[in-house]
Amino acid sequence: MFRRTVAVALAAVAASTLVSCGDDTPAASGTTSLSGTVNVFAAASLTGTFTRLGKDFEAAHPGVKVVFNFAGSSALAQQINQGAPADVFASAAPKNMDQVTGKGTATTFAKNKLEIAVPKGNPGKVTGLKDFADPNRKIALCAEQVPCGAAAKKVFEAAHLTPQPDSLEQDVKAALTKVTLGEVDAALVYKTDVLAAKDKIEGIDFPEATQAINDYPIATLTDAKNPATAKAFVDYVLSPEAKTVLTKAGFETP
Amino acid sequence: MRGRRERVQGRLPLVLLLPALLGLAFLLVPLAGLLAQAPWATLPSRLFSADVGQALRLSLLCASAATVICLLLGVPLAWLLARAELPGRGLIRALVTVPLVLPPVVGGVALLLVLGRRGLIGERLDLWFGFSLPFTTAAVIVAEAFVAMPFLVISVEGALRAADPRYEEAAATLGAGRWLTFRRVTLPSIAPGIVAGAVLCWARALGEFGATITFAGNLPGRTTTMPLAVYLALETDPDVAVVLSVVLLAVSVVVLACLRERWISGLR
After folding, report:
1. CATH code, domain carrying A76
2. What tens digit of pLDDT does each residue of B70-88 get?
3. Domains of chain B from N-terminus onward
4. Would strands A36-43 and A88-90 be described as parallel, antiparallel, or unpaired?
5. Complex ipTM, two decimals?
6. How far apart are CA B72 and CA B76, in angstroms?
7. Which end of chain A is more exposed for a tag (fewer CB within 10 A), N or C?
8. Choosing among B109, B135, B242, which should be mutated to test the A contact, i.e. which has the most A CBs within 10 A?
9. Residue B218 at interface with chain A, using a CB cutoff of 8 Å
10. Range of the domain at A134
């Protein structure tokens, strides 16, 4: 069992280095001599998938420990820039990645799009994006300052609608909570959030969502304490095996 | 009076003085860091933007309203805890302090579960009167009062227990009813405790974030208080967040200093 997992992981890593047009020597990430702790700072929306990926990675590389710090991407970017010990950064927005690494050094590993979330049974009878412009419905959106709010702004612009929100939430989970508790008739959240809470809420797809696809970049950091293992983890996240996990959670993969 | 104070200070032992100064530094150095980081050059232009004024006005209004509610409900509650013969008083006193230890966000969720549109009481309100509390300015006041009231209750209860009950007994023997005694004897004797409690309560309400954003949401002009504006500014522009924090700090220090000057010294 164990040997097979290693074999699969190795194949995956090897494949991914080929796919991600290996700018490094493929052997560097394929060796089994990885060890130590790798500190991964990841966006809050990755909590479920990355916890799973971290466990699989640890199983494939005995002696390696993956430690996660999940929080909002902008908070993480700030922590890293203030000297927090991070080896890998997976952000929910390219902007926050650029704040840490400078432009264009990260690889996109997942994409997320917005979906309408309504309480079970859809009490507000929401059918599409146009209902967000109805002042009589209770609506929660993310604040423009956070990624899901910026994405929401884009889709409303594309649809030529002026939303009438009752609250601009501080993050996507807060918006989701308002739906789960039935306090609002609808909110715009990510597809992955709807899937994660699907026993409490319902999701409604809408065509304009394609106007605001959210890219998730990942990168090893230049002052990583454990660069070899960090790189191996990043390669693993880009592997086909990891893609299956991400897709199952509702992400689209490049 | 003054002479005695100076003598006491002269004898202050080093064992106390050292940790005291350390404590003071611990509280003030982070604030100094905030002030050092503030972008002073652009501060005035950022200060007078409409958003900041709106958030500040809302913060002051809601914190003050919450303090009034806490006074109206909290002082009688403190009196009940300190003076009445209640079974299980220790338990009630412990329960009163629960909002202190509860993470404010959880407090906000708890309020939603009771007063929200699908909440125990909120559902009735919505059904009978078509009134829904969340996402309104009133909800901000409710959330702040919920989080801040324990500060007032504890402070007033402490004052009541420290007050000499013989004055109340004397008033009673002279024929004063309980209400008259409470108003004319008890209240004046615990006034410093009430003021201190109200000040704590107001300050806590002014800085309230978690319960407010959970229960009342965040909409500029309606529920966006300064702490909410600071949090969201931190997402995009930490400089603005620092400016907003400095403004909130300055306003609260001015208000608290004025109050202490006028009320507390007047009472001594």
Report:
1. 3.40.190.10
2. 999 999 999 999 988 888 8
3. 47-101+151-207+220-267 (1.10.3720.10)
4. parallel
5. 0.77
6. 7
7. N
8. B135
9. yes
10. 114-212
